[in-house]
Amino acid sequence: MLLDLSRAVSLALSIISLYALMDSAFFIPGTRWEERLVASFARIAFAACVCFASGILFRHSTDPAVPLTRTLPVRLFLWTLLGISLLFFISWYLDVYYMPLLWRNQPH
């Protein structure tokens, strides 16, 4: 009972830490992309610690021991990190190379 409750709480903390990572990567107004990237590194490390600790709880509760990378919180972290990284670099590219073209063609 207590293990199930701790699994649920740790999964919720994993999701909240991943949300904080996404927030620092995309939703800091008035900063450049390089500053957002540097600010996100600490959040990546924190989210990794929380997700891997939660993965240890999930691994401990299964009867046949599964690898840590196959637990739900760790998979959630890896897929989220892949998606956020991809979206981050695509948005950085579009901001640098495509947005100046839009601003130049504005009607007067």
Radius of gyration: 18 Å
Q: What is the helix content? A: over 70%
Number of helices: 3
Q: Give the overall shape.
A: elongated
The N- to C-terminal Cα distance equals 66 Å
**Main beta-sheet strand count, sense and barrel state:** none
What structural class results from the helix and strand content? mainly alpha
The total number of structural domains is: 1
The SSE order reads HHH
Q: Any low-confidence stretches, pLDDT <50, length ≥5?
A: none
Give the overall pLDDT as a whole number.
90
How many DSSP-defined strands? 0
Strand content: under 5%
Task: Characterize the structure shown.
- Helices cover 81% and strands 0% of the residues.
- The chain has one domain.
- The chain is mainly alpha-helical and 108 residues long.
- It starts with a helix and ends with a helix.
- It is built from three helices and no strands.
Task: Provide a short characterization of the protein structure.
The chain has 108 residues and is mainly α. The protein has helices spanning 2-26, 33-61, 72-104.
Structure characteristics:
81% helix, 3 helices, 0% strand, single chain
Chain-wise SSE layout:
Layout: H1 2-26, H2 33-61, H3 72-104
